[in-house]
Design a protein that fits this description.
single chain, alpha/beta, FAD/NAD(P)-binding domain, 7-stranded mixed sheet, 6-stranded antiparallel sheet, 13 helices, globular, binds flavin-adenine dinucleotide, binds iron/sulfur cluster, GMC family oxidoreductase, oxidoreductase
């Protein structure tokens, strides 16, 4: 990798591209861009340090900058938000779960009267999901193509299911599938296969895809220069275009001139940069949210669990397939193969328990968001989950006995809602015009035409699926829309 000092970053006359942040949105934009324009001079400005995989394992942390040091809570809102500040962004801490969005997830506004429709459809992303599934060496079963049309054979076979999953696949309602994951089920080069140790933010064997074990070619490309410790503060806009990117390093201020600016600083910091640059758009910083994560434990009579080949073995899409209702949110069930809730206490029955994580979609509320109070940190306000999400949670729990009826269920215990699952979305959402959104269907700011926003901030609605495969696919599509 070619690291440059802040002085070198600001000395270049005009960079062809300045990319802000180096997480999923940024790196997949860069990867595609380099295929089309390999000779352009590209600068990445990354706020955090380069914390190598070895450093992360040794320090039991993904970064030396905890997320909560980078934002303030607004009055009355204490909800935490999780992400990595550092080179590679949240490719470091993520857990590698990669389902697609469902075709219906692009039409939440029409289906419920809540939230908005996307300005693109499922079919627009199919070729990009296919390509990203190949690049990220996703392990999975093409059987899931019944729900996600256009699914090809995955490059890696699915991880071993648990006995409970096998029963669900054989005797269930046809909506239980191996979870698609960016965790190897077969070793590749120096990367080991997943051994189900369930410490996935710090995978010890490199089974999980990260920027460092799978994107070295992109980060080390001769056209790419990387400034680390460079916190972008604001952009200069002249004549409807970004002309310069301002950043600080070790207390000093610098700027880098550019022809194209790509903003991928996550869904809390990207809108803050927008706000401090005075860039217009409907709801800049607003509509921030994430889906709800809740845990349940299904007590099994005489069936042992925890015999799968990875941390999260299966996804159940029954509720998604039934269709969306205005009464309650969509949700998916994720079968966990880890001891998150421990064993059962009864002698001889320790393994007769099935942890399920629920992902319940939410609709983004205008009042939830990122605000600039004039200090150097964004203020984040989040009232609470919507009634729609709470009703979705109740619905998902109430349906477990029926959907999982092939299993010997003795009881279902609700274990609570988690404060965050790290799927921060919204705040610079995508739409058809500046009256309803911040960026267009090609992820270009309606107001500033050489500013492309990447990452999960552009999601108008969160869906119940994990967002990152889709964010990467959207970055690829943005390059193709821009450069053809
Ligand atoms: C613990 C955890 C587990 C997760 N597991 C999954 C999963 O299994 N599946 C899934 O789909 N998603 C998962 N996610 C979510 C996933 O990580 C995010 O959806 C994804 O990383 C978002 O991509 P992004 O490019 O928007 O942001 P990021 O990947 O977070 O990248 C943002 C980048 O911007 C940098 N930055 C921030 N501010 C500035 C600034 N002012 N100047 C310069 N640089 C800046 C950051 O350091 C970082 O490099 C998980 C998240 C967490 C926290
Ligand atoms: S389960 Fe273990 S081996 Fe597999 S990705 Fe997670 S930490 Fe790595």
């Amino acid at each position: 990798m070619k690291f440059v000092t802040p002085e070198q970053a600001s000395a270049e006359t005009v960079w062809d591209v300045v990319i802000i942040g180096s997480g999923f949105g940024s790196l997949f934009f860069l990867k595609r861009y380099l295929q089309k324009r390999p000779n352009d001079r590209i600068l990445i400005l990354e706020r955090g340090r380069y914390n190598s995989s070895e450093w992360q394992l040794e320090n039991r942390a993904n970064s030396d900058i905890p997320p909560e040091q980078t934002y303030e809570h607004g009055e009355g809102s204490g909800k935490p938000w999780d992400f990595t500040i550092g080179l590679g962004g949240s490719t470091n801490c993520w857990w590698g779960l990669t389902p697609r969005m469902h075709p219906s997830d692009f039409k939440v506004g029409t289906q419920t009267g809540l939230g908005s429709d996307w300005p693109i459809d499922y079919d627009d992303l199919v070729p990009y999901w296919q390509e990203l599934e190949r690049i990220m060496l996703i392990a999975g079963s093409s059987e899931i193509g019944r729900v996600y049309p256009g699914t090809e054979e995955y490059p890696q076979p699915a991880h071993q299911l648990t006995s409970a999953d096998e029963i669900m696949v054989q005797k269930g309602n046809g909506n239980h599938f191996p979870m698609p994951t960016a965790k190897l089920s077969r070793s590749v080069g120096a990367r080991g296969r997943c051994c189900s140790s369930a410490k996935c933010n710090l995978c010890p064997v490199g089974a999980k895809f990260t920027a460092f074990n799978a994107m070295d070619e992109t980060l080390s490309h001769p056209s790419v220069s990387i400034g680390i410790g460079c916190e972008v503060t604001h952009l200069d806009v002249e004549g409807g275009n970004v002309s310069a990117v301002h950043f600080k390093n070790a207390g000093r201020e610098y700027s880098a001139d550019c022809d194209l600016c790509v903003l991928g600083a996550n869904a809390i910091h990207s809108p803050f940069i927008f706000q401090r640059s005075g860039i217009a758009g409907h709801g800049v910083g607003r509509y921030l949210g994430e889906k709800m994560l809740a845990d349940v434990e299904v007590l099994l009579g005489g069936l042992d669990h925890f015999d799968g080949g990875t941390d999260s073995t299966a996804i159940n899409l029954s509720i998604v397939e039934e269709g969306r209702s205005a009464e309650f949110a969509n949700s998916i069930y994720l079968v966990k193969n880890n001891l998150m809730h421990g064993f059962r206490l009864e002698p001889g029955r320790w393994r007769q328990t099935l942890p399920i994580t629920l992902y319940v979609e939410d609709v983004f509320d205008y009042e939830n968001g990122v605000f600039d109070d004039g200090s150097d940190k964004p203020v984040v306000r989040f009232k609470d989950w919507s009634d729609y999400a709470m009703a979705g949670l109740d619905h998902a729990i109430s349906r477990i006995p029926e959907i999982f009826s092939p299993l010997p269920i003795e009881g279902v215990r609700f274990l609570g809602i988690k404060p965050t699952l790290g799927h921060i979305q919204g705040s610079l959402r995508m739409g058809s015009s500046i009256e309803d959104s911040v960026v267009d269907a090609g992820m270009i700011s309606h107001a500033v035409r050489n500013l492309c926003v990447v990452g999960t901030s552009i999601f108008p609605t969160p869906a119940s699926a994990n967002p990152t495969l889709s964010a990467a696919a959207l970055s690829y599509r943005a390059v193709d829309q821009m450069l053809g």
